[in-house]
Amino acid sequence: MQEIEFVKGIKHTAHGLNFYLSYFDDIAKLIPRDDYCFVVGGWVRDRILGEPVGYNIDVDLLLTCDPTQVAKNLAKKIGGSYFEFEKKGLIVKRPTIATVVLKIPPYKYRFDFAQIKGKDVEKALIEDLKSRDFTCNAIAVSIDDLLSIGAKQTILYDPTGGIDDLEKGLLRPVSLKNLEEDPVRLIRGFRLSLEKDLQLTEDFIDFVKNKGHLIKKAPVERINLELFKILRHNQSGKVIENLYQYGLLEHIFPELSRLKEVKYQGEHHMYSLEKHVMMVMHAVDKVLDERERYLPVELLERLGKRHVMGEFSDLELIKLSALFHDVAKPHTFEIREGKITFYNHDKLGAQIVREVGKRMKWGEEVTLFVSKMVENHLRPFYLRESLKKNQLTDRGRARFWKECEEFASHLFLHAIADAIGSGDTQEEISALLETIHDLVRYKREKYDKIPTEPLLNGKEIMELFKLPEGPKIGELKRALQQAQLDGLVKTKEEAIDFIKNLLSSWDGTEDGSVLKN
Fold first, then answer.
1. In angstroms, rounded to a whole number, what is the distance separating the alpha carbons of residues 318 and 373?
2. Interatomic CA distance for residues 151 and 149, integer angstroms
3. What is the CA radius of gyration of the chain?
4. Are 41 and 94 in the same domain?
5. What is the average pLDDT value for the chain, to the nearest integer?
6. Span 50-64, pLDDT tens digits
7. CA distances from 35 to 108, 147, 276, 469 (A)
8. Which three-class secondary structure state does DSSP give residue 470?
């Protein structure tokens, strides 16, 4: 932590340059002479903690003048983009926030401007700070004390004891009332505890246990933002387990409330269902961190490059898939011939994910991706068993790549985490890795060389065989494409012979919908 000197009551002093950012000089020039600007929140907290400035730089500012005009002028001056939004809690609606975003890869700057009102500026500032979420976020400093020219000692306004809590390693809510007014702060508390390595206080935990249900009234967009920030962290499993343990996760996703029903999953599983899911969440963190160990270079190239929901990537979607991969097991639990089964839990799970995605407003891209992952999460294990028995054919390999190529890398990493979280032996995990490398070898040596489109298009088939347009043509094309994937057809001449033979075996129904194999 930075060296802080206690002055009196709610004020402390520190060296101003510890909080300096070059854009503060630009902002200061835009503030009218008789008005004030204070830097608050995370920027101040992180500088006190001595954290390095990363690539995503967020700064909250409070002004005594109109924030929209200052923000618009700043956007124009530095070449950033401008927009406005309102922060809404259950009870209190905060003033309009004027935002400037500037992207200078790899850096992204975001400046949020809000207004404080009142003749007594210090009193208005303190009232605003006391309305915030956690004491460590309720610390402010005047921007005039942070400028490049003459910044020495600066006064930190700390009316809630945030600096003292940081020194003790605590994340303390300013008040329980503030949590109730904006329940998104509940999930944010768990995130900040992880990111800043701070211990949540007992009053916060008790509030979550007793009033965690309030999160259901919060806007899903803000919940998503906090949840995805958690999933982005390389120890997200720790927080997800805490959210589940204290009941908050079930309030967000009631679909997970039934995990506890399955105490025993059968002879191939060491753990109860809820313990298994949490172990997979821990495992997927480690597997993603060590992904170079598991996947060849060609499968790693695009991993993490897909941008979703603004600032997040496909890596977070692997973790989201892990959270929901067995969500339908309680629905499909049966005992058949003395054995526990969960038939079609993959398909029903995908359907549940689509419903969750719609309710949570994940958007089509995220919802479709996660639902496909859940629907196909068993495939690597089926393929492992086929390879063990020497029954995995090129046709099976080709079918996998045809249907799963878009998310194969993600599916493989998920399967490895699933195996670890199931308590698989090292031999079983090695067999899974061999299956993955077998599929990759096939793709490299054979699948990538197969034409992706049928060697004969619909028009050619109609002209060569004097056939009318209709559903029969589409079925012939699909059969030809499958024959190509199976390695049975490699040239146009072979394609013509294949269609000819297929037509000769056709049973003659008028609509051409049934072809004999």
1. 8
2. 6
3. 29
4. yes
5. 90
6. 999 999 999 999 999
7. 28, 16, 57, 75
8. coil
**Tally of domains within the chain:** 4
**Residue 512 included in any domain:** no
Cα maximum dimension of the chain = 96
SS3 content of the chain, % helix, strand, coil (to 5): 55, 15, 30
Q: Domain of 486?
A: 458-505
- In this structure, is the dihedral angle defined by the CA atoms of residues 388, 396, 436 and 371, taken in order, positive or negative? negative
Report how far residue 288's alpha carbon sits from residue 119's, in angstroms, rounded to the nearest whole number: 53
Last residue of a domain, one of 190, 222, 252: 252
DSSP string over 125-176: HHHHHHTSSBGGG--EEEGGGGSTTT--EEEEE-TT-HHHHHHHTEE-BS-H
Q: Residue 383: how many CA atoms within 13 Å on its side-chain side?
A: 27
Residues 480 and 398 in one domain: no
Residue 278 and residue 373 in one domain:
yes
* Higher local confidence (pLDDT), 88 or 446: 446
Same domain for 276 and 413?
A: yes
The span from the CA of 455 to the CA of 469, in Å, is 18
- Say yes or no: 38 and 144 in one domain: yes
Which residue stretches of 169-272 are H helix?
176-181, 184-195, 202-211, 220-232, 236-245, 248-252
- Per residue in 328-343, pLDDT (tens digit) is 999 999 988 889 889 9
pLDDT digit string (tens) for 480-513? 888 887 778 888 888 888 888 888 887 544 333 3
Is the same domain home to 326 and 406?
yes
Hey, what amino acid is at 386?
S
